[in-house]
Amino acid sequence: MNKELVIVIDFGGQYNQLVARRVRECNVYCEIYSYNTDLAKIKAMNPKGIILTGGPSSCYEEGAATCSKELFELGIPVLGLCYGAQLMMHVLGGRVERAAVREYGKTEVKVDNTSPLFSGVTENTICWMSHFDYIAKMAAGFRAVAVTDNCPVAAAECAERKLYAIQFHPEVLHTVEGSKMLYNFVRGICGCSGDWRMDSFVEEQVKAIREKVGNGRVLCALSGGVDSSVAAVLLSKAVGEQLTCVFVDHGLLRKNEGDEVEAVFGSAGSYKLNFIRVNAQERFYEKLAGVSEPERKRKIIGEEFIRVFEEEAKKIGAVDFLVQGTIYPDVVESGLGGESAVIKSHHNVGGLPDCVDFKEIIEPLRNLFKDEVRKVGLELGIPEHLVFRQPFPGPGLGIRIIGEVTAEKVKVVQDADAIYREEIANAGLAGNINQYFAALTNMRSVGVMGDERTYDYAIALRAVNTIDFMTAEAAQLPWEVLQKVTSRIINEVSHVNRVLYDVTSKPPGTIEFE
Ligand code: XMP
Q1: Which residue, of 353, 387, 421, is where some domain finishes?
Q2: Which of 437, 511, 514 best tests ligand 1's pocket when mutated (most atoms within 8 Å of CB)?
Q3: Measured distance CA(13)–CA(82) in Å, rounded
Q4: Total domains in the fold of the chain
Q5: Cys bridge to 342: 67, 80, 215, 334, which one at CB 3.0-4.6 A?
């Protein structure tokens, strides 16, 4: 791939992937590498710019993550962010010290917009600060180009050497004009033309896949989730009927989901591929009968999935390639920067490679972030309801039913969840909440309906907002919406007489229930 490249050097900051995503939003391709990556390797990649991320260390402490002075002497523009800014000063002879108080949160910053970094940025703007250490003395040749009440060097530049340092975090949305600053760096200072676009990505991938696959046979485990759907369509566009997709319906999908996936990928759909739907619902229910321990349920579902897939794969026989929907965050999290070709078993098809007879793995999305995968999906004409699907766990409703899973309980939670999703959409809230679903608690309680006493289940509604799904806040849904959903669930779903709203954040809760 002959793209302009910006390298993000990771010092362990919590926003490292966010930095990379923001750069990509400027239509500039970038990759993340660990701070201990060999300088020669970085140089060989011929980047147009380098960004140093934040990190938890203090640069003046022994053993702190660091970089060599030569990094700043390559003639390549460098932007240091937070820890990266301090490190730049420290390495080049400035002084970094611990401040008396930590500067944290939204902060007014005064920028010098004669600096190319702040070109077009409002003079008094809001930034997101999160630091204890501060730049007490700049390295020789630098001048301060931004200040806050507590921070004499909120940004600095040495224009001559194209070195820039920002103490705050332009990558987080709280920095109101942060995207503009990053754009100024990659498109202005580094001179990138913006050649990273999803339409050309599709074209290039189709070509590359065709070359690689030749006349070979390709197998893909399709879950109906965004990543595997996009990977499958990309492959089908490239090699058509040489591709076989196996879709296992484990009976733990959301209402009508199995049919929806079949409608898109099956013979009635618009893609020319071999689509196999395995209706394995009964098998899964049988295995899950009498099991209520959450980890055991997850294990059973995962193992049964592999068994079903293995049986199908055996019928197909040996294939040349197996498609995996690995995406860039998986690559980064499993050992930075593509250095280790770790094949994670994180996917809904955990452990799959071992049980299928194939020669090579194809991972067409391994350089993309989720939002880019979605753009590719739209580019490929995949229906929006699939492209913008919210995350759905591999074990499906199995972990949204507390206690034993039965076909009857699956039906209850499917119906309640469908109503909930419909009302969220009707209220125009779908785009504002990262994940929302109904779960079936194992609690039964007394109620009264008409003149009758009832003793039925309680449905729990969950809605969370989150950036990375590692932490999450319960969304504040409008009362009217909750009331409407509640009344519809009680009236339309049998065996439910109570609806609860879960306001627990993560931590201490998790997003799913089991
Ligand atoms: P938790 O419940 O751990 O969920 O807070 C965090 C995110 O991960 C999803 N999730 C899973 N996804 N297989 C998956 O593919 C799983 O076993 C699984 N468990 C949780 C969950 O939906 C949420 O988005």
Answers
A1: 387
A2: 511
A3: 9
A4: 3
A5: 334
Please identify every stretch of the chain with a pLDDT value under 70, giving residue numbers as ranges.
Answer: 1-2, 335-351
**Residue nearest to ligand 1 atom 19, measured at CA:** 393
Q: Which amino acid is at 138?
A: M
pLDDT number for residue 340: 33
Query: What's the pLDDT score for residue 1?
Result: 57
> 9-35 burial, b if ≥16 CB within 10 A, otherwise e?
bbbebbbbbbbbbbbbbbbbbbbbbbb
pLDDT at 28: 97
Residue 391 near ligand 1, beta carbon < 6 Å:
yes
Centroid of ligand 1 to alpha carbon of 467 (angstroms):
14
- One domain for residues 166 and 262: no
Active site residue 171: yes
- Answer whether the bond into residue 508 is a cis peptide, omega within 30°: yes
Pair (132, 247) in one structural domain? no
Q: Are 50 and 6 in contact (CB under 8 A)?
A: yes
Counting atoms of ligand 1 from 1, which one is nearest the CA of 506?
Answer: 5
Task: Pick the atom of ligand 1 nearest to 347's CA.
Answer: 15
Global pTM reads 0.86
Q: Are residues 212 and 321 located together in one domain of the fold? A: yes
What letter represents residue 63's amino acid?
A: G
In this prediction, residue 236 carries a pLDDT of 96
**Ligand 1 neighbour 223 (Cβ under 6 A):** no
Q: H or E element: which one contains 341?
A: none
The boundaries of the domain holding residue 439 are 406-502
Identify the pLDDT of residue 2: 67
How far does residue 514's CA lie from ligand 1's centre (Å)?
Answer: 10
Q: HSE (CB half, 13 Å, CA atoms) of 273?
A: 32
Residue 513 Cα, ligand 1 centroid: separation in angstroms? 10
What pLDDT is attached to residue 511? 95
Residue nearest to atom 3 of ligand 1 (CA): 510
User: Under a CB-based contact definition with an 8 Å cutoff, are residues 185 and 79 in contact?
Assistant: yes
Q: Which amino acid is at 385?
A: H
Q: Is 82 a catalytic residue?
A: yes
Q: Which of 31, 103, 171, 514 is catalytic?
A: 171
